[in-house]
């Protein structure tokens, strides 16, 4: 009986081994292969991918006994999966992300791009190519051609606070489509700097406490500041629904909104100094900050916060839904930011997100480009290695210092405790549920 059992086990083993042949492409279930890889290299694999029913051809031939990462690359690439190293013993498996690459990829990209230009003349030729093609790939001019001309804004009453005022606005951009936001202005008379503040993907959008603190404090110090909803967020969601935010059109519409608001402010307010036009946003708002500087020459100072990297285009279609990083044969957000040279730019980064590489990669690259103009002092980096992805006090203080320096704002008025945090509905133009939307406005219905 014992001999018979051993014979059966040997037969089964031979049968399994014989299935691994040229005719079967040496195929094995992906889940089995990954379990073997984890055991072989003594690591833990975390899964953000579906392995059910996935079969890997030439499975064991893809294993490199000397390299876990080469093995994972070989095993995962047929399924458009990738890995992210979380520690020496933990790797996370994820679907391929076209907008996100590795730090090493960013370093290689910057080295490649740096080889394209060695002086100001070569750089400016590259700059013109990129600016033209980014605009084309975004489809901006086609959309601007459809905008509503001479539309009357919807304006709220002006609310007065300690050293600043707030007024809500709604501008019709495309027929029936409005962009909504708030203008924070100094209570002092005369000409003031203007700072356009696109919003990022932080909770509560532009209504959150730290957003109001930043806007109001900059206004108290002497700048007119404008923030506005992301497309498909806030009051925009009342018109188009939240899912509209995760579309390629959002990429173009948000850029159009920033330019449209700048046009409106310059045309309708007499308290703006056109020589002092800033742009500042965090996270996705930082991505928009860079894009607006590429698209519009009127900006004279820029401060992208916790956003800039050579290896990350932005994780939302509203940031990377149109293939602008394919411009010029391939570019990245660091090169797009460099197009702003030699005008003043502050890059705020931290150690807890993708901007951790800025001191080592992106900032030296920017300094080189600014160096073509003898203006390395015009680009700066405040790096906060112990902090994470937010717009916290240290990041806001860096922004305040930057605009105090470039626009001559009044540092004596820097006091966030003087800011009144308004409830969300106070900052809306159309009411909590859109009950005040104008006739003819788009209204989202589930």
UniProtKB/TrEMBL annotation:
The keyword NAD does not apply. This is Acetyl xylan esterase (AXE1). Residues 1-19 form the signal peptide. InterPro entries: AB_hydrolase_fold, FrsA_esterase. PANTHER family: ACETYL XYLAN ESTERASE DOMAIN-CONTAINING PROTEIN, DIENELACTONE HYDROLASE DOMAIN-CONTAINING PROTEIN-RELATED. The keyword Signal applies. Keywords: Signal.
